[in-house]
Amino acid sequence: MFAVIQTGGKQYRVAKGDSLRVEKLPGDVGAAVTFDKVLLLAPEGGAAKVGTPVVQGAKVSATIVAQDRDKKIIVFKFRRRKNYRRKNGHRQPYTELKITDITG
After folding, report:
1. Domain count of the chain?
2. Which end of the chain is more exposed for a tag (fewer CB within 10 A), N or C?
C-alpha cells in the first residue's frame, strides 16, 4: 500500500517503512507525526482512492528520525563590468521521517 501526502508545499509518495526528508517540522527526535492531507491512497492490487482534494479518513503516521540542516549551497550574484559581486551561503533545515503506518 502506498499513499501520496502533502507537506511543506510539496507532495511525496510514501509506503510503510520508507524514509524521507521533508521541510522542517516542529517536534523532537522520536516524536510521532500524523499527516491528514492524504491526496491518494492505493492498496496492493486494489483500486486507488483519489481525494477531492483529500481522501476522507485517511492518515499517514511517521516518527521523526532527525532534525538537521542540508549541505551548504553557495549563492553567487555577479554583474559583468559593474564591479558587483555578492557571495552568500545557505543551509536549508529539514526533518527526516520514517513512515510507520498508513490507514484509510
Report:
1. 1
2. N
Q: Is the distance from CB of 11 to CB of 4 less than 8 angstroms?
A: yes
- Report the predicted TM-score, pTM, of the whole model to 2 decimal places: 0.85
Domain region containing 96: 2-103
Spatial CB neighbours of 56, under 8 Å, sequence gap ≥ 6: none
- What HEC string does 45-83 produce? CCCCEECCCCCCCCEEEEEEEEEEECCCEEEEEEECCCC
Q: Give residue-wise pLDDT tens across range 60-80.
A: 999 999 999 999 999 999 999
Which residue carries 557571495 as its cell?
A: 87
